[in-house]
Amino acid sequence: MPILQMRIMFMSGSINHNKKLEFIEKELQERRNNNNLRELNAIYPKDAVTAIKNGKPLINFSSNDYLGLSKHPQIITTSQDYLNRYGTGSTASRLVTGNYDIHKKLEEKIAKLCGKEAALLFNTGFQANSTIIPALVNQKSLVLCDRLVHNSILQGILLSKAQWKRYKHNDLSHLETLLKKAVSQGYNRILIITETVFSMEGDRSDVDSLIQLSQQYNTLLYLDDAHALGIMGDKGMGLTAQKPGIDISLGTFGKAMGSFGAFITTSKLMRDYLINCCPGFIYTTALPPAVIGSIDAAFDIIPSLDQEREYLLQKVDYLQNNLRNLGYQVINSSSPIIPVMIGNEKKTLQLSQFLEKNGILATAIRPPTVPQNTARIRLVLSSQHQPEHINYLIQLLQQYHES
Ligand SMILES: *Cc1c(COP(=O)(O)O)cnc(C)c1O
């Protein structure tokens, strides 16, 4: 019998086409039942802190635009200028014809501002984490990561096929116990990877101690600085800038930079290696000119925003203290990310809906983004929030708590 005919017989015999999508319906139904179903809701970003949803203006307490730079006139103008001069797309991978002088100059500028030997652009933080890690470690390696690292880091670890263990959140003595055990176990390499500011908690890790442990146990060290860049460290260059002893620091342009994309700072040697061996760098079209323009301008502006950074951290303290006084459970965060812990998914959704009804956008964050029973409202402050915005939020949360 011809092979093609056999295949057709086999397929029609073994797959019931009416049922092949049943697993999808089942999964979605389960999520609906658990109040975990995710849906896309369109908004219009009127200004840095106002979102229009269903025709109604809402004060946005969920975006990562910490400095309101997505609407900064100078950044928009520079982006338009790059767009006019270079066109809409970069037309190919960096390794083909997509490597413009603007990509190269931006990398040199970032490396200099961060006090590192080299920088390398990536299209997103997700793409960087999920494809750099597998270029660094393999089946014979061990990865040690914080229990709460971002999903893009987990994807990278899984793709690498390395052995991996998670240490308790921000517990570096647990990390050291794992390191002590690991050094005699014959791994070809050990990689420590964590975030400097945790995206769903807002707390920080101890960068200096991580560097020290990495040196003591001779491991690779990879730090994800996505939520520190722009708002922390000297001149807003993040918590890893100017610090030797970190093999790779990741920053993203989609948060405080108000744009899109990502970069790492690293050594020249590591940069050369990734240009040759990191699929997420090689097999993708370079960032488009308009994006490069916006990032270039953002790096000119961010060092001068010390006042905004100070205002922001003052307001973090103010909001946290007020919420605690009202009886809310708030993670002790030292960043503009302020998670109000509710626990139960349904209650978290109810609070989010109550806020929205009253003019505030504050998204519910539910498992599996965060661990079971830790659903939360992740409030995010921006330097563009005025005191009356914050006081109105506090007033609403008081009203909710008392009702
Ligand atoms: C947002 C984020 C990323 C992903 O960055 P994108 O550029 O948005 O893909 C990676 N790591 C952390 C910690 C993040 O918060």
TrEMBL record:
This is 8-amino-7-ketopelargonate synthase. It comes from Crocosphaera subtropica (strain ATCC 51142 / BH68). One of its GO terms (molecular function) is 8-amino-7-oxononanoate synthase activity. The gene is bioF. SUPFAM superfamilies: PLP-dependent transferases. Keywords: Biotin biosynthesis, Pyridoxal phosphate, Transferase. Pfam families: Aminotran_1_2 (PF00155). Pathway: Cofactor biosynthesis; biotin biosynthesis. Catalyzes the decarboxylative condensation of pimeloyl-[acyl-carrier protein] and L-alanine to produce 8-amino-7-oxononanoate (AON), [acyl-carrier protein], and carbon dioxide.
